[in-house]
Amino acid sequence: MAKVRQGPTFLNASSLKKAGEMEISQPRKAATQLEIPLGPQQAHAFRATGPSKAVRQNLLDAHRSLLQTNPAGFQEKLAALAESPFRFFRGTSSLFYAHLPQSLRDGARVLLNGDVHPENFGVLKANDGELIFGLNDFDEATHGPFKMDVARGATGFALAARHRGLDEDQQREVAKVFVDAYLDQLEDFSDNKGENKARFDQKNSPRLIEELLEKAESKSRKKFLKKRAEDGKFLATDEIHPWPRIPKDFKKAFAKYVRNLDLDPKKMQIKDVARKTGSGTASIGLDRFYVLCEGKSDKDKDDLIMELKVAHPSVLKGLLPTQNGVEFRSEAERIKAARRVHNPGDSKYHGSLRFEGRDFIVRERGPYKSSIEWAEVDQKDFIKYAKVCGQVLAQAHARLETKNHTEKAILDGVAKKKDFKAEVADFAVQQVAQTYEDYQVFQELMRNQDFGA
Predict the structure, then answer these.
(1) Is residue 360 part of a domain?
(2) According to the model, what pLDDT value does residue 146 have?
(3) Distance of alpha carbon 255 from alpha carbon 259, whole angstroms
(4) Alpha-carbon separation of residue 163 from 90, 154, 171, 229, 392 (angstroms)
(5) Domain total for the chain?
(6) Which pLDDT score is estimated for 38?
(7) Domain range spanning residue 102?
(8) Could you tell me the mean pLDDT of each successive run of 10 residues in the chain, 453 residues long?
(9) What is the C-alpha to C-alpha distance for residues 378 and 386, in angstroms, rounded to an integer?
């Protein structure tokens, strides 16, 4: 299996506590086996009603806040979900977890990503300037049993396999590749601390990922900026909507973010702000803004674009015990903590701010953002991609340090590797079929306008 290069050290739970990003309410035992009850709204509807009502109610429950604050955004998201079964899967994780059996809701505790699928992996910039490949979305992250991430990741790849025209046996094999790579990577870490420095970069990645990183590195900041801004102002497009003026409260909030991260205030001086639409799937309808900053000089070619996205509660919040030993002070702190634990040497720009009573995650939006076009690569590369993503998830899970080592706790909870792979792969294939059924129900609901106008 591919060896992973030693890179910058990760933050673990102890260092996060020292940094003030989480409050430890009580000591936590490692490798706790959990029995997690289904949330009353998210799960019991499937037993109490027919499929149409169940799908409709689940989506309404999951988007209640969006419905109240941005009804038009909810309709925009519904339109995006209707594009394909895979995009429907991406944007309806609450529906997925409602179908998850109890046997895949227990196991050693980790810092879950919460929304693992083939399109939540991509290129990131580390604080040492190197581009790396890893998980790139942490909106749903929280503490919980490792099996929940593994099951969603395996299902995501099995669903992608069906999208590529593969039959059920082939979908099952793809899911097994993902799970096998996950377990093998954990075994590599079980006797050492390698997970704290492991990462995929241009020096150690398989060809598929190496080429992706090289392509990302070759992208021009000048061209990236030219498409989005001119003369220190954002260009108005269908997705970028410049503000007519920048409120003083916003400037204060952004200045506080700059101070908290000890960034250069001259480099981070605000030139313009715009509302951003049309990004993501699960996060469609949520407020997102772009901030154009001065950069290293007064020349436009080195300007920076910072992205602000409102932090919302994890979809897993209603499915996991509230007293889990770790309480975050805000949704933004939860997302920040997950990114810093999961990714090596996180970008120096990744932080948060509070504006108009809401918490926002802040990150740089640079030209290097790239991901694998899994529907376009050949079959061998698709399998390799599933393997790499399984390894990346294992790296992320192993980085939450416990007395008994997280990776050892996970492996100890998998009595027979072969049986666990089979259980997850069988569920993944069944869930692919279920996703297509739910998608068909959803399309019928849309045709009948059962979500309202």
Answers:
(1) no
(2) 96
(3) 6
(4) 13, 14, 10, 37, 23
(5) 1
(6) 41
(7) 5-218+371-447
(8) 36 36 32 35 44 89 88 91 96 95 92 96 88 93 95 98 97 98 92 75 94 95 94 95 96 97 95 91 87 89 94 87 66 91 82 95 92 95 98 91 74 90 98 97 91 67
(9) 13
- Report if residue 242 sits inside a domain: no
| pLDDT, position 406 | 85
> What does each C-alpha distance from 123 to 181, 221, 227, 277, 377 come to in angstroms?
20, 15, 20, 22, 17
Residue 289: which residues within 8 A CB-CB, separation 6 or more? 273, 274, 275, 276, 307, 308, 360
Query: Two tokens at 271?
Result: 């030139």
Confirm if 135 and 392 have CB atoms less than 8 A apart: yes
Q: By CB neighbour count within 10 A (0-12 exposed, 13-18 middle, 19+ buried), where does 416 fall?
A: exposed
Instruction: Name, in order, each residue with C-beta under 8 angstroms of 449's C-beta and a sequence gap of 6 or more.
Output: none
User: Sheet harboring 270-276: ordered strands across?
Assistant: 240-242, 270-276, 288-293, 304-310, 358-364, 351-355
**Start-to-end CA span in the chain (Å):** 52
Structure tokens at 444: 């019928």
Written as one letter, the residue type at 414 is V
Residue among 435, 425, 356 nearest 172 (CA): 425
Helix (H) or strand (E) holding 273: strand 270-276
CB neighbour class for 67 (10 Å; exposed up to 12, middle 13-18, buried from 19): middle
